[in-house]
Write a structure and sequence with these properties.
Strand order of the largest sheet: 2-1-8
Number of helices: 0
Number of domains: 1
Order of helices and strands: EEEEEEEE
Strand content: 35-45%
Number of strands: 8
Largest sheet: 3 strands, antiparallel
Radius of gyration: 12 Å
Helix content: under 10%
Oligomer: single chain
Shape: flat
């Protein structure tokens, strides 16, 4: 299970699933044109991707990936 955790307050988010196929979303990183990276959650069956959760004004991180 991909668990996202806030580095500031310790809040965590557990399993997120795809609304089309119910598969658990997997952690990934998207590299932007300027070289910065953004944490994302992706459907392993190709149904799309979303921006991963934020907490305390920053991206939550995931040790899986």
């Amino acid at each position: 299970m991909a668990a996202y955790t806030c580095g500031k307050c310790g809040m965590s988010v557990g399993t997120m699933t795809c609304g089309q196929c119910d598969a658990e979303l997997v952690h990934d990183t998207l590299t932007m044109d300027d070289g910065s990276s953004v944490h994302i959650s992706t459907c392993p069956n190709g149904h799309g991707k979303i921006k991963s959760p934020m907490c305390c004004g920053q991206d939550m991180t995931c040790s899986v990936g």
